Amino acid sequence: MDRCDAHGECDASVRARVQPRNKKAEKMNAAPGEVDKDFIPGLMYIRDNEATAEEFEAMTLPFTVPNASGQDIQLSSKFSHITLENRAEYVRLAINYRLHEFDEQVSAVREGMARVVPVPLLSLFTGYELETMVCGSPDIPLHLLKSVATYKGVEPTSSLIQWFWEVMESFSNTERSLFLRFVWGRTRLPRTIADFRGRDFVVQVLDKYNPPDHFLPESYTCFFLLKLPRYSCKQVLEEKLKYAIHFCKSIDTDDYARIALSGEPAADDSSEDSDNEDADSFASDSTQDYLTGH
Predict the structure, then answer these.
(1) Which of 4, 205, 242, 246 could join 153 in a cystine, given CB atoms 3.0 to 4.6 angstroms apart?
(2) Active-site residue among 10, 135, 222, 233?
């Protein structure tokens, strides 16, 4: 992972501040945590190398360390290359640089969080608990998704809906995360039903897809809406849904999901107009429901 992303996942050098101590790093008198999976072994090689002073000089190792953007940072104005005599100093400075490389960014994050939550209160939670409260759980419980599901154009007891949930049950947590990105533009669910704030997961089945087995599912991430063709069997539904969640990654590229597998346009202009009318109608209904609290 590089740096911190929108889902609370952070660079190793940032995680090092909060993770349990790494035994190898401690032996080197390093700061807490796994500094970097490749960085530490490289420093250990330098520290434990049994080469002679002459052999070390012949390696011509620069007294620098790469930063997050790949640029070499000179660690000392006193030394230009690593030698047998200064290698311990190099290891110390290299680890220190890596651990404090993002001090400015971490300080800015801390300042921003302090404007929302008093910083002393954060000590009441573990890192995982805080991440879950802010971002939701990385585990995606289907019972929670089912509890907020509503259906349009199909009965909840229909074979198609049963197949859909059976396929979702068979998905790995990673695939469920991809599914959420496809239908909602996020990769985690809120923690509780109350955290959905009245937003339902809508499954809509339309008969405009003909033949249905030649079409992919569609989604409208703004409305947490999944549109399904009336597939003929569970196997076809699983195949099309997996294709959609793995390859239809861009938000708002509606035409991408309306292309028939033959490569030809899925519908003519009149059909596209009809589809837009469906979306507008649903958007209007959803907006009204949201405003009225239904």
Answers:
(1) 205
(2) 222
